[in-house]
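The records we work with from here on pair a chain with its fold. These numbers are not coordinates but entries in a learned vocabulary of local backbone shapes. To see the layout at work, look at the sequence and tokens printed below:
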Amino acid sequence: METRVVPIIIWKATTSLSTWKWLGEKPIEPGWEVTVDFKFFLLSHTRNIYCVVGEDNKKEKKHHCFYRTIVGGLAGFDRFVSQKVFSDVSNGYLNADGSCVIGADVFVSKKRTKVVNEERVSMIHNPSMYKLVWKIDNYVSKSEAHHCFSNPVPGDQKYCLWKLNLYPRGTSDASGSHLSLFLALANPETLPPSSKIFAEFTLRIVDQTYSIHFSYTTRNWFSALVPTCGNPEFIKLCDFYSEASGFLVNGTCIMEADITILGISH
């Protein structure tokens, strides 16, 4: 094993300080992997000690993970330290001039391994949930055909973009009896070959009157070959169009998707 200190890429997040590390400047060749252990350090100037963050954001622990070209040699913590703790003067992390000191201990294995017909699954520590909302006006005019609604906030998605597939009159065996609703990758062709995304998601139709929403939750591996998952029998048409349901108000329907990406397969 060799030890080296590498520069840290940092930026200001809305609720926390995020830190990320590049695995060297030379890219890893496709089909190869390298193993590293690393720790991040945040200096408290007032106490002259370091806050050490490793695996699962627990203090004094190392983080072990695999890097390959598919993830760009980038790893770190979305929530390295909360903005409140980082900005608290008593903690001493942030100087009066707005500067701070961050470092890393990186242990890189000299041995690089050739991967042949092997699938690597990287589970995501402390996954974040993304909430997407689609407000569909003039719903009745759209009720006769299949519609795709693109990701309303593409900048919020870290791994991929999503879209909503809506069949207002149902599809397959549910045609004419149910509303069919699916979550799908917006650009599945952009995924690297054999890559898959493991996600838990909830599709929801909002009750705009009584807040008794109708939802469906499941987990699925999304890929270029299987880019869509959902429920063809999401809700009965008679229930959806019922005036008492609150799902369709003044011609407007609101649909939501809560998405948590749990893992990546390479």
